[in-house]
Amino acid sequence: MFYKNKANSYREILPGVSMKTIVYGEKTLMSEFFLKDGGILPTHDHIHEHTGYLISGKIILTIGEETFDVEPGDSWNISGGVAHAVETLEDSIAIEVFSPRRDEYIR
């Protein structure tokens, strides 16, 4: 599969949190998230392992009991079933890859 970038293809999933699926295959899915300054992704967990990379902005990422100040170029991996949350300190863009793929993120 090949994906041609479309700037206007974000969809809001929570107030201040928008995402677009970039590309996916049988086992993985890659998404781009736009996080508005002051946005909150509340504590949650899911079966998907995911690996992320912050492209721009600044966030506070909580994984389990640990909290990290995340800046552009920083990356993370969160195992399935582990609670995590995000607080956005400025407009931010992050890329995340999920396995198994998140079918609910496919339109």
TrEMBL record:
Residues 35-92 form the Cupin type-2 domain. InterPro entries: Bacilysin_H2HPP_isomerase, Cupin_2, RmlC-like_jellyroll, RmlC_Cupin_sf. This is Cupin 2 conserved barrel domain-containing protein. Pfam families: Cupin_2.
